[in-house]
Amino acid sequence: MELLDRLNLTLTAKRISILKWILPLAMAVVVLAVEFAQMLWLAGGGLSEFIADGLVYGTAGPLLLFWLLDVLQRWLVERETSALQARLLARAREHLSDNQTLSDSTLQSLFATSLYINDVHDHVAGLPPEAVTQLEAAHQSLDAAITGLREHLLKTDRPLR
Predict the structure, then answer these.
(1) Which among 16, 24, 107, 129 is least buried, having the fewest CB atoms inside 10 angstroms?
(2) DSSP letters spanning 34-53
(3) How far apart are CA 58 and CA 142, in angstroms?
(4) Of 61, 53, 19, 48, whose CA–CA distance to 34 is shortest?
(5) What pLDDT, in 10s, does the model give residues 51-83?
(6) Smallest Cα–Cα separation from 82: which of 4, 20, 12, 160?
(7) Are 58 and 8 in contact (CB under 8 A)?
(8) Phi-psi region of 2 (alpha: psi -120 to 50; beta: other; left: phi over 0)
(9) What is the pLDDT of residue 1?
(10) What CA–CA distances, in Å, run from 125 to 11, 79, 120, 145?
């Protein structure tokens, strides 16, 4: 398995959602604090340089960081959705395969029982007429079940898209 598949992407995306607000704000505060300290200690450019540097570095960096974290969060959510869809598709294919195997084995069992009843029906000379009627009804019922199951298998035999 790939490393990102092993991570809980939902929690990671939620954490990034929180970080995309906290980190840019913290970055803006740090930049403004550094610029303010530089203005006081170096007394170089004064208030206008503090405002200009604070606006440029205090907004551009945090906005870029916010945008990058937003892109990362969207990518993780998309990856999580794709992984979920892949798991659901694999489960649906497995379920379809199991159903076809079960239906096929059931169809074979019904057909074998129908052949057995057919064979018994050929030797009904000593059976009472009620038993012969019940045997014919059972044979017709089995034939109807076989026909219904075949129709179902033909409908579900289409591949998944």
Answers:
(1) 129
(2) HHHHHHHHH--SHHHHHHHH
(3) 80
(4) 53
(5) 777 778 888 888 898 999 899 889 988 988 898
(6) 4
(7) no
(8) beta
(9) 44
(10) 75, 71, 10, 27
